[in-house]
Design brief:
The protein contains 22 helices and no strands. It has about 525 residues and is an all-alpha fold. Helix 7 crosses helix 8 and helix 8 packs antiparallel against helix 17. It is globular. Keywords: Membrane, Transmembrane, Transmembrane helix, Transport.
Length: about 525
C-alpha cells in the first residue's frame, strides 16, 4: 500500500533489518527516531501499558460489587475477544511497525478520512486513559499510609475523588518529564518497572495460593446480583465486565514504538501477543486466587477496597504493604507507557500535518531524540481531564469507562477496514513476517464483532456506572455516549472543514525521492 491507501506488494524483508525503514519509505516518511530499543523493551512497552497489577488492583472492587465472584468469567471472555484484535494487529505490525500505529493502519486500510478519525479517537482516548491510570494511585497509596490522603480523611467519595486528582496530577507530571528526556530514559525506567511488576505478580500468586480459604467453585457464586433485573445476572455480568475490559488493551504500543526499535517487523508482532497472553494468564490467576484466599468473602470492604483489602487481610500487614508498593511501581510504569504511546500517536498525526501546529508538534528534539512538545501537551490535557472531574464521586468508573469505549472505537477503525480489504482480496501480510494465513478472515470477522459488541456494552447508559449516586441527571447517565459522540462529531467536523485541505506529509519528514 502507498501512503494514500492503495494496494501494493509488500516490501521484502532484508537480512540487515532495513525492511523496517523500507516500510517507512513506503508510507512516505524518512527515518527520524533513533532505533535503540531491543526485544525486551518492545515487550515491556506492551505489557506495561496493559499492566496486570494496575488494572486488576484498580477495578477488582467494581467487578465484585456488580457481578460477585462470578465476574471472574469476564476475564477469559475479554481475553478471547481481544486476542482476535491482537492477532489482526500482529499482521499489521509485521508489515508496518510505525509510530502511531492505530492512526497509520486505519489510514492505510480505510483511507485518509477514516485514518484521521481513528487517530483522533485514539489520541483522545490515550489522554483520557492517562488520566484514568493516574487515578489508580488513590486506590493504593492511602491504603499504604493515611499520609497519602492529603484532602480530608477519605471518608467521603468527594474527598477521595479530589485526592485522586492531586495524586494523579503528580504522576502525570512525572511521566511528562521522563518522556521529555527521551525514549532511552523512558525505556530503562519502564523495563525496570516491568521486571519488578512481573516478579511481584508471580510472588503474589504464590502467596495467595498459600493462603487459600476455599475452592475454585467460588467463581460460580453470583452473590445474587441481577436478581429482579430485566436481564437477570447477564445484565450484572456485562456491567462487571468493565473491570476486565479495562485491563486488556494497549498491546499495540509494541508497534507504536516500532520506529525506535531494532527489527520491529519481527519483534513487534511477538511482543503484542506475548504481552496479551502473559497478562491474561498472570492476571487470571491473581483474580482467582484472591477470591479463594480472602478470609471473609462477604466482607463489605471487598466491594470497596478490592484487591488491596484482599492482600492486606490475607497476607498480613507487612507482606501486604510490600505488595502494594509493587503495585505503585506498576501504576507508575503503566502511566509512563500510556503517555509514551500517546506521544507517538500525536507525532504521527502531526507529521502528516493532520493537527493544528503540525510542524511544531512533529519536531524531534535534536538532543533528546523525541517529540517534546506532545509530551507536555498530552500531560496538561490529562491533568485538565482530572481537574474537570474533581468533585465527581464516580470519577473512577466514569473516566475509565469513557477511555475504554474510545479505545474500542479506535480499534474498530482498524479491524473493520482491514476486513473490507480482506474480502476484496487487497490485503497481504509482509513476506517472512507474522501471518494468519487462512485464519485471517475468520479472526478478522470475530475481531470486528467483538469490538462492536463491547463498544455497545460499555457505552450502555447504566446508572450504576455513570450516575450511581445523586443528583441523578439524564445527561450524566448518557455521559459516555454524549462525550464520545461529541469528540467524534466535533473532531471530524473540524477535520472536514479545516484540516482536510492541509493534510500531507510535511516536507521535513518526507522520505527522499529518487530522481
Amino acid at each position: 500500500m502507498t501512503a494514500s491507501g492503495s494496494a501494493g506488494p509488500p516490501p521484502k524483508p532484508r537480512p540487515d533489518g532495513s525492511h523496517d525503514d523500507d516500510s517507512l519509505a513506503e508510507l512516505g516518511y524518512r527515518p527520524e527516531l533513533k532505533r535503540t530499543l531491543g526485544n525486551f523493551h518492545t515487550f515491556a512497552a506492551g505489557i506495561s501499558y496493559i499492566s496486570i497489577l494496575t488494572g486488576t488492583f484498580q477495578l477488582f472492587y467494581f467487578g465484585v460489587a456488580h457481578g460477585g465472584p462470578a465476574y471472574w468469567w469476564s476475564w477469559p471472555m475479554v481475553f478471547s475477544g481481544q486476542l482476535m484484535v491482537a492477532l489482526s494487529f500482529a499482521e499489521l505490525a509485521g508489515r508496518y511497525p510505525v509510530a502511531g500505529s492505530v492512526y497509520n493502519w486505519s489510514k492505510l486500510l480505510g483511507g485518509p478520512h477514516v485514518g484521521w478519525l481513528g487517530g483522533w479517537m485514539m489520541m483522545t482516548a490515550s489522554m483520557v486513559s492517562l488520566a484514568a491510570v493516574a487515578l489508580a494511585y488513590q486506590v493504593t497509596l492511602p491504603q499504604i499510609s493515611s499520609l497519602f490522603q492529603f484532602i480530608g480523611d477519605g471518608s467521603t467519595g468527594t474527598e477521595r475523588a479530589a485526592n485522586a486528582v492531586l495524586l494523579g496530577s503528580v504522576l502525570i507530571l512525572f511521566t511528562m518529564v521522563i518522556n521529555g528526556f527521551g525514549v532511552k530514559l523512558m525505556a530503562r525506567i519502564n523495563s525496570a518497572g516491568v521486571a519488578i511488576e512481573l516478579i511481584a505478580t508471580v510472588v503474589l500468586i504464590l502467596l495467595l495460593a498459600a493462603h487459600l480459604a476455599r475452592g475454585p467453585s467460588v467463581v460460580l457464586d453470583t452473590f445474587g446480583r441481577g436478581h429482579g433485573e430485566p436481564l437477570g445476572y447477564l445484565g450484572a455480568f456485562l456491567t462487571a465486565s468493565l473491570a476486565s475490559a479495562y485491563v486488556m488493551y494497549g498491546f499495540d504500543t509494541a508497534s507504536s514504538l516500532g520506529e525506535e526499535s531494532v527489527d520491529p517487523g519481527r519483534n513487534a508482532p511477538r511482543a503484542i501477543l506475548r504481552a496479551l497472553v502473559a497478562s491474561f494468564a498472570l492476571g487470571g490467576l491473581i483474580l482467582l486466587f484472591a477470591l479463594m484466599a480472602v478470609p471473609n468473602l462477604h466482607d463489605k470492604r471487598l466491594a470497596v477496597d478490592g484487591l488491596q483489602f484482599v492482600v492486606l487481610s490475607a497476607l498480613g500487614h507487612g507482606v501486604g504493604l510490600m505488595v502494594l508498593w509493587c503495585v505503585v511501581v506498576a501504576i507508575t510504569v503503566c502511566a509512563l507507557a500510556v503517555h509514551t504511546a500517546a506521544i507517538r500517536l500525536m507525532f504521527a498525526m502531526a507529521r502528516d500535518n493532520n493537527l493544528p501546529g503540525g510542524s511544531r508538534l512533529a519536531r524531534v528534539h535534536p538532543r533528546f531524540q523525541t517529540p517534546v512538545l506532545p509530551a507536555v501537551l498530552i500531560g496538561l490535557v490529562a491533568i485538565a481531564i482530572l481537574v474537570l472531574n474533581i468533585n465527581q464521586p464516580q470519577i473512577f468508573s466514569v473516566v475509565t469507562s469513557i477511555a475504554i469505549i474510545m479505545i474500542y472505537v479506535a480499534y474498530l477503525m482498524v479491524t473493520l477496514p482491514m476486513l473490507v480489504r480482506r474480502l476484496r482480496g487487497q490485503w497481504r501480510p509482509a513476506e517472512d513476517r507474522f501471518s494468519l494465513g487462512r485464519l485471517g478472515l475468520p479472526v478478522n470477522v470475530l475481531a470486528v464483532l467483538w469490538g462492536t459488541a463491547m463498544t455497545v456494552n460499555l457505552a450502555w447508559p447504566r446508572a450504576e456506572v455513570y450516575n450511581a449516586t445523586g443528583p441523578h441527571h439524564w445527561y450524566l447517565r448518557w455521559g459516555a455516549v454524549l462525550f464520545v459522540g461529541a469528540v467524534a462529531l466535533g473532531g471530524f467536523t473540524y477535520y472536514w472543514f479545516v484540516q482536510r485541505t492541509r493534510t500531507g506529509v510535511l516536507a521535513e519528514h518526507a522520505a527522499a525521492t529518487t530522481p
